[in-house]
Specification:
Shape: elongated
Structural class: alpha/beta
Low-confidence stretches: 3-22
Mean pLDDT: 84
Number of domains: 3
Number of strands: 11
Radius of gyration: 25 Å
Order of helices and strands: HHHHHHHHHHHEEEEEHEEHEHEHEHE
Strand order of the largest sheet: 9-8-7-10-11
Strand content: 15-25%
Distance between the termini: 28 Å
């Protein structure tokens, strides 16, 4: 925890996030409309470039699928670019779902393109399919495109939840860097292949689309963290052992109010030590930011997070963000219920301290297996007393009747539950149980706000 002087600094600055910063955000609905318009434009391009008379046949199917696959690649790059307007307006959890859906769609279009093109060549040349495969592989850029396809499928297989859970975060992160190699290998085929060959203006526009998407990626994934590091000069001040494999990392910097970090948001932190610089980890702020200090809290659940527990004071820190849409902006109702499990208390603690409630009811429900697993209990109790808010600690085995997450128990603990906004951050299993109970108790789905930024 912060010492006395830092607590005074926190108290002095805790109001600077009360007014929501005026940052640009792109709402999810607008983003979907832009994506849909792009899809229509690419489909129209396939129609326009089809030889007359138009026929919905194998060549056209291959042409359309290839163009859509190429367009989906640029959209996925933009989603990977961590553009603040998208991350804050849409939310990291929804962005991850979109990315996964686009990835699966991309693989489907790649298969359709390859199969339709091979069968069309076989039919057009009157040759067996095995020979047509060899002919097609001899076309411009096809060997590189085939390698790219194999890489895309490898990444897709390793992104399946069952496989992903067996991988270290650092391994998964490194493998996903192969995505950029796959895109580079496939690009020459896109320009020189039959989908765009002979249309120089379209080739220029296509190249500009790829250039713009990668420019955004470099701007926000490479340049932005460097600029933040130079401006704010974040370093590890010290580590605070919170017990039970959890530490708080106190960062010292300058001009930190310029970050405009809202309670509930997170950053991606890259600790620049020899053992941890390769990967950026997403962690929420666990205290309101001040002009000179930030605090994040980390539980050791893998090799990467264990390394963070051994960081030395003075270690430089590159930050990306702030990201996330689980903020006060999502509120639609008068009262609020915050639900946290374990280390999921980190974003809930900042919201608990900062939400502008007036005379509205504010409740924090905190689930922990044991008393010693509760983080920041002294801070939470102080906040509750100063705000007149309520804390409900659910401690002990979930098999105990009073700890069961059921619609009846939630309604007993929070009688006006269905008329509140609910913010949730917890482990996947506990989150699913809470959501079932909330919806069973009649909470409208639009009143539940959750953001999962796990890999």
């Amino acid at each position: 925890m912060f010492d006395t002087a830092e607590r005074r600094d926190l108290a002095h600055h805790s109001g600077f996030t009360a007014e929501v910063p005026s940052t640009h955000r792109l709402p999810a609905a607008v983003a979907l409309w832009l994506f849909a318009l792009g899809t229509v434009a690419v489909s129209a391009l396939a129609l326009i470039s089809a030889p007359p008379p138009f026929q919905f046949n194998l060549p056209f199917t291959a042409h359309l699928a290839g163009l859509l696959a190429g367009y989906f690649v640029t959209v996925m790059v933009i989603l990977m670019a961590r553009i603040p307007a998208l991350e804050s307006g849409i939310g990291a959890d929804r962005m991850a779902r979109w990315h996964g859906l686009l990835g699966r769609s991309l693989l489907c279009f790649i298969v359709i393109h390859g199969v339709a093109a091979t069968l069309a060549w076989s039919a057009g040349q009157g040759i067996p399919v095995p020979r047509s495969i060899l002919d097609v592989l001899g076309m411009p850029g096809l060997i590189a495109a085939t390698v790219a396809t194999a890489l895309f499928f490898l990444i897709g297989l390793l992104s399946i939840r069952a496989a992903r859970r067996r991988l270290r975060y650092e391994t998964w992160h490194t493998i996903h860097l192969l995505t950029y190699l796959a895109i580079a290998l496939s690009f020459s085929h896109e320009l020189a292949g039959p989908d765009l060959a002979g249309f120089p203006l379209i080739q220029i526009v296509w190249s500009c689309l790829y250039t713009a998407s990668f420019a955004l990626l470099i701007r926000y994934r490479v340049i932005a963290p460097v600029l933040l590091l130079m401006r704010h000069r974040l370093r590890v001040e010290r580590l605070v052992d919170e017990g039970q494999g959890v530490v708080s990392v106190i960062l010292r910097g300058r001009h930190l109010s310029e970050l405009n970090a809202e309670p509930g948001q997170f950053f991606r932190w890259r600790f620049l030590s020899k053992d941890s610089w390769k990967a950026a980890h997403p962690f929420s702020l666990s205290a309101l930011p001040t002009q000179n200090y930030l605090r994040l809290t980390v539980k050791a659940v893998g090799d990467g997070t264990k390394i963070i527990h051994s960081l030395r004071p003075g270690t430089w820190v590159a930050a990306e963000g702030p990201y996330g849409a689980m903020t006060e902006r999502r509120r639609t109702r008068h009262g609020v219920l915050l639900v946290a499990g374990g280390v999921g208390i980190t974003p809930m603690r900042t919201l608990f301290e900062s939400l502008r409630m007036g005379d509205a009811p504010l409740t924090l429900l905190y689930r922990a297996s044991r008393e010693e697993d509760i983080l920041f209990r002294g801070e939470l109790d102080d906040i509750a007393r100063s705000r007149g808010a309520q804390i409900i600690y659910l401690i002990g085995p979930s098999s105990q009747p009073r700890n069961e997450i059921t619609p009846g128990n939630l309604e007993r603990l929070v009688p006006d539950l269905r008329h509140r906004d609910v913010y949730l951050c917890a482990s996947p299993g506990f989150s699913e149980a809470v959501k079932r109970a909330l919806f069973g108790a009649g909470l409208p789905r639009k009143n539940l706000h959750q953001e999962d930024f796990a890999f």
